[in-house]
Design brief:
Layout (H helix, E strand, L loop, with lengths): L2 E3 L6 H10 L1 H17 L2 H7 L18 H28 L1 H20 L5 H29 L5 H26 L5 H7 L2 H13 L4 H6 L3 H12 L5 H14 L5 H4 L6 H16 L2 H5 L2 H6 L10 H28 L1 H26 L8 H20 L1 H11 L3 H33 L2 H20 L11 H6 L5 H4 L15 H8 L3 H7 L25 E3 H6 L15
Antiparallel strand pairs: 1-2
The structure holds beta-D-fructofuranose.
Pfam families: Sugar_tr (PF00083)
InterPro entries: MFS_dom (IPR020846), MFS_STP/MST-like_plant (IPR044778), MFS_sugar_transport-like (IPR005828), MFS_trans_sf (IPR036259), STP/PLT_plant (IPR045262), Sugar/inositol_transpt (IPR003663), Sugar_transporter_CS (IPR005829)
Organism: Coccomyxa subellipsoidea
Length: about 575
């Protein structure tokens, strides 16, 4: 029995399309890297937040504990969280590329407003609100676009490009800030340059094709097939296209996706959609990415370098994260998601606790840490940053974006973007206040969240590497623990067994669906549920292959014999 490799070619075209879509991440990153640095520039601080402009003698932990400054930092996140909800509607009903256009346009307008702000601080805040809209829409569509365009074997790699875009944006903005901090009104240049990633995304929205899944979902079946042929670089796409059609057919519920996602059968996906971005943010990454210049402004090793010293430290910490993220882009489809998450959590929590120990032992009041402690802090914060870069940074986005059925995918992605940005907003808003009150304890706090993330991953995160996107939802439902949440008694119904198990698919082909469940699943337990059958077969180099009978069992006529799907 021949196995059919559904891995189509990974064409230059699809890689390029995903690169452009990944600039949805660039918007987010540029914002993060730019804002922290701009806030630490003297002219900007004197003009807009005068109480933070002269902090020479203030306590190390409390230097930047300024309410308006925190509000300016976090307003982008709050708006982004809110914007991700309408983004779901637009992405689902008007296409992924329409959301790209909205995101790019809002971001460009936000840059113009902030860079030209004078007299009233409202211009700064409105500009940042527009950036929030850009990030809410941009993150929403970028992850869905890359997941749907990518062939299964490359999905992890292409999807993690978005986070790679984010950290690239942070690094570029950190480098630009070093240059602009030497120029009078340099902060305006930093803010104006944000229009560049906005323009890339806008042009992408105008010139890129929408995904085959979105086109089919919106009734453009022929265009969907044509795009699939173009991105796969072959006319022979019938098998993949038929699974998109079937997934679309299954998705044509009359039920509202927001209601569907709350159903019992979608509970694991919903929990992953919320927990992954939540845990990603509560590991404290924004404290490091956005506030690195502020943290390092209190570190004695940099005090002689004026404003530039902390900016260099920020560049270093984000630069190592950038390298770690690229490593994951390269290896995520080989190594798998779980092992990266687990090792990242362990390294991250160790680094957090170690930073807390260094700070607690060396702090004796006053504005600066001793030099040896400063160096230790930079090394440890860099280690934390590396751990985030190869694990929760990219994979905290990847898993939630690939686990939903087509019908609930856009709503699910909104929930993820909403949770991510809301958590980011809260961390951003309270971090400087927490640092002032908890002092080194803030790093213990973040370390504890990393411990929660570790336990969550071990128990509840399924390994979705190589599973075709049309099948990940059933794959997750069948996870050894989740299946007890998804199905009454933990028994997987036959219609959800769209696995590569030959026995299942051959029996379906032979019209023995009912016999299979009686013979092979005594007491109602299925061979899959009982762990006898392997859900997915792996070919060479981790490529997932579809078995011939499985493909035939996917044909709509074969489903006639299957029991009707219940809403659980
Ligand atoms: O790389 C760090 C950055 O990435 C994000 O997690 C977004 O994916 C941000 O919250 C953070 O600042």
């Amino acid at each position: 029995m021949g196995a059919i490799d559904v891995e189509a070619k990974t064409t230059v075209y699809v890689v390029l399309a995903c690169f452009i879509a990944a600039s949805g991440g660039l918007l987010f990153g540029y914002d993060g890297g730019c804002t922290g640095g701009v806030e630490s520039m003297k002219q900007f601080a004197q003009m807009w937040f005068p109480s933070t402009a002269d902090v020479q003698d203030t306590d190390f932990y409390c230097k930047f504990n300024d309410k308006p400054l925190q509000a300016y930092s976090s307003v982008m996140h709050f708006t982004g969280a809110v914007a991700s909800l309408p983004a779901s509607y637009v992405t689902q009903h008007f296409g992924r590329t329409t959301s790209m256009k909205v995101a790019g346009t809002a971001y460009i307008l936000g840059s113009i407003l902030q860079a030209s702000a004078s007299r009233t601080i409202a211009m700064l805040f409105i500009g940042r609100i527009l950036w929030g809209i850009g990030v809410g829409f941009g993150d929403h569509c970028a992850f869905i676009y890359t997941s749907e365009m990518a062939p299964p074997r490359w999905r992890g790699r292409l999807n993690t490009l978005v986070q790679c875009g984010t950290i690239t944006g942070i690094v570029i903005a950190s480098a630009i800030n070093i240059g602009t901090s030497r120029i009078v009104w340099g902060w305006r240049i930093s803010l104006a340059l944000a229009a560049v990633p906005g323009s890339i995304l806008l042009l992408g929205g105008i010139f890129l094709p929408d995904t085959p899944n979105s086109l089919v979902e919106r009734g453009h079946v022929d265009r969907g097939r044509a795009v699939l042929r173009r991105v796969r670089g072959t006319p022979d796409v019938d098998e993949e296209f038929s699974s998109i059609l079937i997934a679309n057919k299954a998705a044509q519920h009359s039920e509202n996706p927001w209601r569907s996602i709350g159903r019992r059968r979608n509970r694991p996906q919903l929990v992953l959609a919320i927990a992954m971005p939540f845990l990603q943010q509560w590991s404290g990454v924004n404290a490091v990415s956005f506030f690195a210049p502020q943290i390092f402004a209190g570190v004695s090793a940099f005090k002689t370098n004026g404003i530039e010293g902390p900016l260099y430290a920020a560049l270093l910490v984000n630069g190592v994260q950038w390298i770690a993220t690229i490593v994951t882009v390269i290896c995520v489809d080989k190594v798998g998601r779980r092992s990266l998450l687990i090792s990242g959590s362990i390294l991250g929590l160790a680094a957090d606790f170690a930073v807390a120990i260094v700070f607690s032992l060396s702090y004796s009041g006053g504005p600066y840490l001793p030099t040896s402690a400063s160096i230790a802090a930079i090394v440890l914060i860099s280690l934390y940053s590396i751990s985030f870069g190869f694990s929760w940074g990219p994979i905290g986005w990847l898993i939630p974006s690939e686990v939903h059925d087509l019908h609930t995918r856009s709503a699910g992605q909104s929930i993820t973007v909403f949770t991510q940005l809301l958590s980011g907003a809260i961390v951003t808003q309270v971090f400087l206040m927490m640092m002032c009150n908890l002092k080194w304890g803030v790093f213990v706090f973040f370390g504890l969240w990393q411990t929660v993330a570790l336990v969550f991953t071990v128990l509840l995160v399924p390994e979705t590497r190589g599973v075709p996107i049309e099948k990940t939802a059933n794959f997750v439902r069948a996870h050894w623990l989740w299946r007890h949440v998804t199905y009454p008694g933990g028994h997987i119904p036959l219609e959800d067994m769209d696995t590569r198990d030959n026995r299942v698919s051959e029996s379906i082909r032979a019209g023995n669906a009912n016999r299979l469940s009686e013979d092979d699943a005594p007491n109602g337990s299925s061979p899959y549920a009982a762990g006898k059958a392997k859900p997915f077969a792996e070919g060479k180099a981790g490529a997932v292959t579809l078995q011939q009978p499985m493909m035939q069992s996917l044909a709509p006529t074969r489903h006639k014999k299957l029991p009707a799907r219940r809403s659980v």
